[in-house]
UniProtKB/TrEMBL annotation:
UniProt-recorded name of the protein: G5 domain-containing protein
Keyword tags: Membrane, Signal, Transmembrane, Transmembrane helix
Gene source species: candidate division WWE3 bacterium RIFCSPHIGHO2_02_FULL_38_14
InterPro entries: G5_dom (IPR011098), Glycopeptide_resist_protein (IPR052913), Vancomycin_resist_VanW (IPR007391), YoaR-like_PG-bd (IPR022029)
Domain G5: 522-598
Listed transmembrane segments: 35-53
Origin superkingdom: Bacteria
């Protein structure tokens, strides 16, 4: 049986559907269209931006104070050079009514424009999209500032700025006490000033960075004194008593008296909790201690007692050394000075030496010097023998410098020397210690023969016949305290012993230097004598204190000459040193006194 089915048909309402969809799409279209247009415009702008500035510096870039944004490399280079040409070649600094200038050429200053522009061109092109986009956008609204590259000689600039700083500086000073016209007086304090540290350099470099041509004003700061005039008035009376009170240091029979100026030099003013007070000036007192220490110091002394063919077989210590006991003497000095005592004794310690004699290395005779003193008067013989005795036995440690003056000590009547002829101010005159130069001359010859380096040696002003009795001319050494000294350095690995032999019967003096032989050999050339000049005619001077007709010779004739000789010291065919010794002797006239007393 057939069944008829009735099919229902649905017919959509298209107009209604279109209206509904259109209503939903309309806002989206309204948004997309402007966005599309914006993106299109942005793409066009970006494309145009990159097209326009493809070979140009991006907008907004400034080098120093010069705008190079939007310019090609060549255009920017021209603009920078034009900016530089407008600048003055001098950098100008002003201070009060003074003007200082530094020429850029003098400090080798030079801008590096090509390098600077390469850096400028990299802005916006680093490869970092965020940074590059930010810089490109920012360039339209603000400056993108970079510093120029340049070169200059930093040492030259610093030196010139230091010179300017020194010229404008006003040295300040504390109030201080001085001795004027024999009286203690107070000098008022002075306020100083100086350039602010680093300010000149900083301002100069900023000028280079800005490519500017402006004058710089020097910044200064004041330096206030620590001690004022009124501060010193509180201790003036005490200082006055200390400075002018008699004061001396003693050591055995020797003494050193202080002048008021010397005492004042050893004083300083300290600020204490309760006010101001006097104290020892640390630096000046340490300098004084060094001087006094050298005066009282006595080196250990030794003696070679047996020698076999220049080899030392017996050697002994004959005397310990002495040195200033610094700590105790400082306290004693301070207490005596500030407590009103007139004298302080130098505290001295005995310096013991090692008992093991092998530690000294006194094994062999290294060199010997010999001289004759035939014809010398008794005072002269006494003086040269005394000087030889005082340097006899001195031990010189390795690396140390031997001083003849320190070895013999002070040369005057108080230390045992007689009056004999000496050379002084171009004249042969009587003086304390005449003849000591004979000792230094003999020592000089020993040093030469031992091959030791000579630190200090001075020839005599004229030829002295004593020194040529058994030696060629030129082998002499003069000393005059404290300026002229004979010194050598012990550059051997062991101690050197200075030993003397005085033979009054044969009028002979010897110096022997013992130590450790390190294989050195010595060659000394014969002296070359040139510019020989005869002595002037004798001079006769009338003397009313001498009997009429009597003649007394007070100076002696000597030929003038220039003399040189060379010493070469070697070891294992290697030259250690080569030195030339030169002497220029003046021609010397004989001087006679002619008596006129009736």
């Amino acid at each position: 049986m057939k069944k008829n089915h009735k099919v229902a048909t649905i017919t959509p309402n298209h107009n209604k559907l279109h209206s509904k969809i259109a209503g939903k799409l309309k806002p989206a279209v309204n948004i997309i269209k402007p966005l599309y247009i914006f993106l299109l415009v942005a793409a066009v702008v970006i494309s145009a931006y990159h097209t326009v500035f493809a070979n140009r510096i991006i907008p907004g870039v400034v080098i120093g104070n010069t705008n190079v944004g939007g310019l090609s490399f060549k255009e920017a280079l021209t603009r920078l050079k034009e900016s530089e040409e407008k600048l003055n070649k001098d950098i100008t600094y002003n201070f009060e009514n003074k003007t200082f200038k530094i020429n850029k050429e003098d400090i080798k200053f030079e801008y590096k424009w090509e390098v600077t522009l390469s850096r400028a061109y990299e802005i916006g092109r680093s490869g970092d999209i965020y940074t590059d986009s930010k810089d490109k956008l920012a360039g339209f609204f603000k400056y993108l500032s970079i510093k120029p590259f340049y070169d200059y000689d930093d040492i030259l600039l610093s030196a010139k700025l230091l010179g300017i700083g020194a010229e404008i500086a006003k040295e300040g000073s504390d109030a201080k006490m001085i001795i004027k016209d024999g009286k203690l007086t107070v000098l008022p304090a002075v306020t100083g000033s100086s350039a602010v540290k680093g300010s000149l350099y900083k301002d100069t470099v900023e000028l280079f960075d800005q490519i500017e041509d402006k004058q710089l004003f020097i910044q200064t700061k004041t330096d206030d004194p620590d001690i004022l005039e009124e501060d010193l008035k509180t201790i003036f009376d005490r200082a006055n008593k200390i400075v002018f009170a008699p004061f001396k240091v003693t050591y055995g029979k020797r003494e050193w008296k202080f002048t008021p100026e010397q005492i004042l030099n050893l004083l300083t003013v300290n600020k204490e909790k309760t006010g101001f007070d006097l104290a020892l000036n640390k630096d000046n007192f340490e300098s004084y201690l060094e001087t006094l220490g050298s005066e009282v110091k006595e080196s250990p002394k030794a003696q070679v007692t047996k020698v076999n063919e220049d080899k030392v077989e017996e050697f002994k210590i004959i005397k310990n050394g002495k040195e200033l006991e610094v700590k105790k003497f400082t306290e004693d000095f301070k207490n005596a000075l500030f407590d009103g005592k007139s004298t302080v004794e130098a505290a001295v310690n005995e310096v013991s030496v090692p008992e093991d004699k092998s530690r000294y290395g006194i094994k062999k005779l290294l060199g010997e010097g010999v001289s004759k003193f035939t014809g010398s008067g008794q005072p002269r013989i006494h003086n040269l023998a005394l000087a030889a005795e005082r340097t006899n036995g001195v031990l010189v440690p390795p690396g140390n410098i031997y001083s003849f003056n320190k070895s013999v000590g002070e040369i005057n009547g108080m230390t045992g020397y007689d009056t004999a002829y000496i050379i002084s101010n171009g004249r042969t005159v009587l003086g304390e210690g005449g003849g000591v130069c004979h000792t230094s001359t003999t020592m000089f010859r020993a040093i030469l023969n031992a091959g030791l380096p000579i630190v200090s040696r001075f020839p005599h002003a004229y030829r002295v016949y004593y020194y040529e009795l058994d030696s060629p001319v030129g082998f002499d050494a003069s000393i005059f305290q404290p300026s002229l000294d004979l010194q050598f350095k012990n550059d051997t690995p062991a101690y050197i012993l200075v030993q003397t032999e005085f033979d009054p019967k044969n009028y002979t003096l010897k110096f022997k230097l013992f130590g450790t032989d390190d294989g050195r050999k010595v060659e000394i050339t014969k002296p070359v004598v040139t510019n020989v000049v005869a002595p002037p005619e004798p001079l006769y001077q009338e003397d009313p204190t001498l009997p009429e007709g009597s003649i007394k010779q007070i100076d002696f004739a000597a030929w003038g000459a220039s003399v040189t000789f060379t010493r070469t010291v070697t070891r294992e065919d290697k030259e250690l040193y080569k030195d030339t010794f030169s002497s220029r002797y003046q021609p010397w006239r004989a001087i006679y006194l002619k008596g006129t007393k009736k």
